[in-house]
Recover the amino acids of this structure.
């Protein structure tokens, strides 16, 4: 949610900043801006800025037309996902102080901005935007005017702000300094050779360095070619960040020959799932978590599990409920993180809260984690981002190893979350004493075999693409998804993918619920995608969904079935079948979700949508 970059060093500052913004554009793309400080020889330094509504390309077009004979010495850049004020040139960042000496960019929400704005307006300050950010720019300008020290000024300003924010600022008469501050919002430092970077995430600077520093909560960082990096707390006390090395390279953030990041990421799923499983099962067959600040006894004492997450991660949680309850017999509830803390859930020391978040920064999930911790519950997080806030605040962590996911629509993050969730379920079962020891070891074997099966699904997706193109050509305006058991969350995920990418009305239903209302949505030709469970094993489920297929067909639906290979019964009833390799029911979402991702991507592409950056969305949602 908003991408932020700062740079001080000998390279072309504008190139580094724009390059960083390009890699962070997935965080928000409704406007972009830069502020650059120049130090001409024999003249006073000065500040220049440009900002433009729309995608980064609009800003680049403006910058391309400018005289570049003088290089800036430091700068900041921002790509926005609007919270306060419509996407427009005037609301784009940076925002300037009243005297024009300070430029500031912001990610997050300043919750007390109304009160601060009223106070500043009463003092005669004229506001030029509708954003909450502008109050911070004016406050910083005033504080900076007092002593000309940007770091001290930022420290005093942060003491007045409430909410979640990452701020970066430069001053017109300080050509060697960028100051950043963070509270409840991400900011990392990149360390180069005599050059320093600040960014919302490491993707912005891995082209230049893999050495990074993680900042703690409520910290202020100053980067300068002359003095390097200094960190202090909001209380002014000197502090230190935590150094780490980024273990993926620039190639991982590029499209690698695919037309879009989403297509590349769909194709990376077999590797991503294999990487997530690799080394997680030790020589004795026990599952190993990454960071555990809980004893085995703590795990044994757990009598209830809550899973909290948002969007796609929530759907991974819904699948996990079936697995955890079956393998451990512990009651498990799944809740949208944004709702969790507002309904006063019953939590105590024997409750395990599993927080699932690809980014590890989703504000709704972070707040739910903090609420759970306040109530003394234990928190285990599943995240794709090492060092992000949610894992840092959790008692135990299992990282998915999907690598960077750039497309806004989650694909490989979802599959690796499922893989990690299965490991957590099995870990709980093992620590507590395995009830179904044979089944658990068989499931582990099947999990290890899953990447190969996912690869087989991906190789055979062309008929799904053809079906999607037909739907687009027919002017389909709605698609329904139905499933039972773990097929139900997969149906929800398929519908979410189609909504966010194609902007079509798409709904996922528990197949049995159709007859209680939604069946009235079906008209002649309405596509219904049915996630059909294996005809083996829990065949009762299979029979039931075949009945549901017949019900919708009787009302004119065109049924597209995702079923197990060799399922002749489904083939006889559906208009189109896509077969996936045989798999245990609980693990089947690893396979059945993939054709739905491809269906949404192809239908959206046929409709001319931007599938990497759908409208109104952002990859990392760091506001509540
Ligand atoms: O980073 P998180 O997993 O916490 O993100 C949660 C949702 O915002 C996310 O899963 C979103 O629904 C997907 N991008 C949709 O494809």
């Amino acid at each position: 949610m908003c991408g932020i970059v700062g740079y001080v060093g000998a390279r072309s500052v504008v190139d580094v900043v724009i390059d960083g913004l390009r890699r962070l554009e997935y965080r928000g793309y409704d406007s972009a801006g830069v502020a650059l400080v120049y130090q001409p020889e024999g003249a006073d330094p000065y500040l220049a800025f440009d900002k433009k509504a729309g995608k980064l390309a609009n800003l680049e077009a403006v910058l391309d037309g400018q005289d570049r004979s003088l290089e800036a010495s430091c700068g900041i850049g921002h790509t926005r996902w609007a919270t306060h004020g419509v996407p427009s040139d005037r609301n784009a960042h940076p925002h300037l102080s009243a005297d024009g000496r300070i430029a500031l960019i912001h990610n997050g929400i300043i919750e007390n901005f109304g009160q601060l704005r009223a106070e500043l307006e009463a003092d005669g300050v004229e506001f030029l935007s509708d954003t909450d950010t502008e109050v911070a720019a004016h406050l910083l300008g005033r504080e900076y005017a007092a002593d000309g020290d940007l770091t001290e000024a930022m420290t005093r300003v942060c003491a007045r702000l409430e909410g979640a924010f990452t701020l970066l600022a430069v001053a017109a008469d300080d050509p060697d300094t960028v100051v950043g501050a963070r509270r409840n919002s991400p900011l990392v430092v990149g360390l180069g050779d005599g050059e320093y970077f600040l960014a919302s995430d490491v993707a912005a600077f891995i082209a230049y360095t893999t050495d990074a520093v993680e900042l703690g909560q409520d910290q202020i960082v100053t980067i300068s070619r002359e003095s390097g990096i200094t960190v202090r707390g909001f209380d002014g006390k000197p502090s230190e960040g935590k150094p780490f090395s980024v273990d993926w390279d620039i190639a991982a953030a590029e499209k690698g020959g695919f037309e879009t990041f989403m297509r590349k990421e769909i194709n990376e799923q077999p590797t991503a799932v294999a990487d997530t499983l690799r080394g997680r099962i030790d020589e004795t067959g026990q599952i190993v978590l990454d960071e555990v600040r809980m004893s085995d006894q703590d795990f044994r004492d757990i009598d209830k599990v809550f899973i909290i997450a948002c969007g796609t991660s929530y759907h991974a949680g819904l699948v996990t409920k079936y697995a955890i309850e079956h393998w451990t017999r512990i009651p498990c509830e799944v809740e949208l993180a944004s709702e969790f803390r507002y309904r006063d859930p019953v939590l105590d020391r024997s409750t395990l809260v599993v927080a699932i978040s690809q980014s590890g920064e989703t504000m709704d999930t972070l707040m739910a984690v903090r609420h759970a911790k306040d109530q003394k519950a234990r928190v285990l997080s599943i995240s794709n981002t090492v060092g992000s806030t949610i894992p840092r605040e959790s008692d135990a962590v299992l990282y998915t190893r999907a690598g960077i996911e750039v497309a806004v629509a989650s694909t490989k993050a979802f599959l690796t979350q499922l893989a990690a969730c299965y490991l957590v379920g099995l870990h709980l079962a093992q620590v507590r004493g395995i009830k179904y020891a044979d089944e658990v070891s068989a499931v582990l074997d099947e999990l290890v075999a899953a990447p190969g099966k996912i690869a087989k699904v991906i190789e055979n997706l062309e008929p799904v693409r053809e079906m999607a193109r037909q739907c687009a050509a027919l002017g389909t305006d709605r698609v329904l998804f139905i499933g039972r058991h773990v097929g139900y969350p997969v149906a929800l995920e398929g519908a979410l993918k189609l909504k966010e990418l194609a902007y079509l009305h798409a709904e996922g239903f528990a197949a049995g619920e159709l007859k209680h209302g939604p069946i009235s949505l079906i008209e002649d030709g309405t596509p219904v995608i049915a996630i059909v469970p294996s005809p083996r094993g829990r065949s009762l489920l299979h029979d039931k969904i075949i009945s549901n297929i017949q019900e919708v067909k009787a009302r004119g639906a065109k049924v597209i079935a995702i079923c197990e290979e060799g399922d002749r019964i489904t083939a006889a009833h559906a208009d189109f079948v896509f077969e996936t390799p045989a798999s245990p029911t609980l693990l089947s979402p690893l396979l059945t979700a993939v054709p739905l991702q491809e269906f949404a991507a192809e239908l959206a592409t046929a409709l001319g949508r931007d599938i990497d950056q759908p409208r109104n969305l952002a990859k990392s949602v760091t506001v509540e």
The chain is about 35% helix and 25% strand. The chain has a mean pLDDT of 92.
